[in-house]
Amino acid sequence: MRILSYNIQAAIGTDSYWRYVSRLHRQVLPARAKHDTLARIADYIAAFDVVCLQEIDLGGLRSGFCCQANLLAEASAFAHSLHQTNRVVGKLSRHGNMMLSHFPLRLLVSESLPSRIKGRGWLAAAADTPWGEMVVANAHFSLGRQDQIHQAQHIVDALAKYEKVCLCGDFNFLPDAAAAKVLERAGFIRVAAPAPTYPSWQPRKTLDHIFLKGLHGQGQTETFCASDHLPVSAQLSLSADKSV
User: How many CB atoms lie within 10 A of CB 125?
Assistant: First the structure.
C-alpha cells in the first residue's frame, strides 16, 4: 500500500527563491498556470492508494473561487476524499488540508490544532483497506517550537486508542525536533522523508514526514516538483488483520 504526503502550495508553483517575488501575484490572484499545475499534481498522485495534501485552496479569489479539492478529486479519479478549511483570509484564500483514497474513508477527526496563531489543522480517517482498517491522519503544523510540541501531544492523545496509524504532513520541524520526540515516545516511527524536502529546487530541510504507529513501511522523498515542497511517500507492509 502506497501513501503520499504533499504540501502543494495552493498550486502557486514556486520553483526558486526568485519565484517567490516574480510569482507574488499568484498568492493573491488566479492564474491559468495554477490549473495546469493542478492537472500535473492530479496525474502524479493518482498512482498512490492514499494521498494527504496540505495547503490546498478551497475557493478563494487566488484560485478563481474554484475549490481545488473538488478539482483534484475529479481529475485524479479517487473514489473517496475528505477536506477541511483551516484559515479564511477574507475572499482572498481558503487554506485547507485534504485526503484522497482509493479505499472508503470514515471521518474520525477534523479540527484546528492548538496554537497561539490560529490557522493550522488536521484530519484523521479510518481507511477500509483490503488488509483491514487503519487510521490515516493528515496534519499541517505551525512554525513555533512550543506550538509544535502542543500540537504533537494533541494528536498523540487523540489517536491513543488506535493501534494502526499512519500520520502524514508538513510538520515544519526537523527530524530531531522536540515535537518529533513527543511523537516518537508515543510509538510513532518516522519513515519519511529520509532526504530533505524544502525548498524543492535545492532541498536543505526535512520538514515533511510520515510517521507510523503499529505499522511497518519504507519511506522516500519523491522528485516530483510542482510546489516549494517535495512530496514524501511510504510503502506499507500490510497483512490481513481486521482490527484498527
Answer: 25
How many residues does this entry show for the chain?
244
- Spatial separation of the C-alpha atoms in residues 34 and 5, rounded to whole Å: 20
The residues, ordered by sequence, that sit 6+ positions from 202 with a Cβ below 8 Å of its Cβ are none
Q: Where are the alpha helices (DSSP H) in 30-120?
A: 32-45, 68-76
**Could you please report the per-residue DSSP string of 100-118?**
EESS-EEEEEEEEPP-SS-
Question: What pLDDT, in 10s, does the model give residues 138-163?
Answer: 999 999 999 999 999 999 999 999 99
The answer to whether 205 and 198 have CB atoms below 8 angstroms apart is yes
CATH number belonging to the domain at 2-236, selected among 1.10.3720.10, 3.40.50.720, 3.30.110.10, 3.60.10.10: 3.60.10.10
Distance from C-alpha of 218 to C-alpha of 208, rounded to nearest angstrom? 15
